[in-house]
Design goal:
By secondary structure, the protein is α/β, with parallel strands linked by helices. The protein is about 40% helix and about 20% strand. About 55% of the residues are buried.
Length: about 550
Amino acid sequence: MVTLGLDFGTNTVRALLVRTDDGAEIAASVAPYEHGDEGVLYDDNDPNLARQHPGDYLTAMEAAVQGAMAEGAVDPSQIVGIGVDTTGSTPIPCDASGMPLALDPRFAANPNAMAWLWKDHTSHAEAAQITDMAAKMRPNYLKKCGGKYSSEWFFSKILHCLRTDPEVFDAAHHWIECADWIPAILTGNQAPGRYKAGVCAAGHKAMYNDGWGGLPDAQFLGALHPKMGELRQRLFDKAYPANVSAGSLTEEWASDFGVPAGIPVAVGAFDAHLGAVGSGIRPGTLVKIIGTSTCDMMVEPTTTDLADIPGLCGIVNGSVLPDHYGMEAGQSAVGDIFNWFVDEFGLTHEAMTRQAEALRPGQSGLLALDWNNGNRTILTDPLLTGLLVGQTLHTKPHEIYRALIEATAFGALVIMERFEEYGVKVERVVNCGGIAEKNPMVMQIYADVTGREMFVSRSSQTCALGSAIAAAVVAGEYPTFEAAQDRVTGLKEKSYRPNPDAHRIYRRIFSLYKDLHDAFGTQQWHGNLGHVMKELIAIREGARR
């Protein structure tokens, strides 16, 4: 039998057909979004804004599935289930029927009626207000989301819409995560009260927890604004993991896809969380999904006495593996930083990589902070920016390129140390995504900086593969995610082991990175940065000798 995994990324939709008995990836097809700059609607006057047209999700999905079915030449009767992952938090304002307001002619050109993409940071003031209000009224809400609410998340974006465009807010009967809307559309359950919300999105981005009755209560939301309290009554009450069926595929979508009607569609989840499933995540394994940004995922059994970990993007029961706490961390920009540098300065990744990999650790004398799109973990602050220290009149572009890569590796190490500081042991690191697949230099730098062997997932489509695994479970092909993972996931033969000499140098540079990290990123730091440039010069001279 075969399942269909749908992966809604930042720029494209990917459809993947997977054979359930051995995990063979039969066919894959990718379709881009039509509107905006590579599918994203930006505003030159507001660098924090990033939206998408929800209609693009449907047209690109149809094209991707039809492409995969044509390439795979699969007997349609063999398709037994569909799984869905999307970006997030990507909430969509909808009317009472479940139709996005962007599809209403009145709002067709209004970016506030679109899907508010995960990397939209326009609501940073609202996120701070939610954090302050929760600290006063419901401190338990903050304990499971790292101690601070983010501008990337569900309620801060909705509150910002209320503040800046009340017409759109008032026209919206409710808001729904993209990860919930796609399965709802596929099953004909998009109307409020009919769709099944995913615990992945609800728990990590909307402060949902069964321990306090689900979503934040109306009194708390009403303290932010009375209309937020009223909205609470129009949202869902219960959220489900991705091993639960969201319903059956409608006749209309089955005809468009060329697959059987009535097959189960799994409850939706975020791309990184199902990407972790597709990478074979287990307790002790840190999965790094490396793309435009990164998400770092770990799990622990719910029988574990797990501490609340500051700076994480949530600790949620069932968000990755059922009966496990899913822990999410990450960096707001990684591939985006590399792309920014080569695109803005007319360079190429190929040329920069070729020259940068010839450099020894510390040879450039440069040190960067990887905050070009703010800091997701562990500082949870969108108002932080990038920094480059150590430039001279002789600094070359490829030296900056390598320093930017090293900065993302230092940021990754900060996350690993935060996990272990609170008792979650990182025993193995598995990387996935295009950068892990295509750039050995990045993987070697990550190994040398962290002092850990870097493994790479066998599949190059781990998010879509994780969705296909969810589909296999809801279709009854496997009893659990773990049973499916044992058959369909694995690692590439090549891994990247740390060079001890390089690691020793990087430990010195990482100490300086931490000084900059704490000095520019926290209010608690007190000290003197006078040593940073001098130490970088000393390291540089030693490397050049």
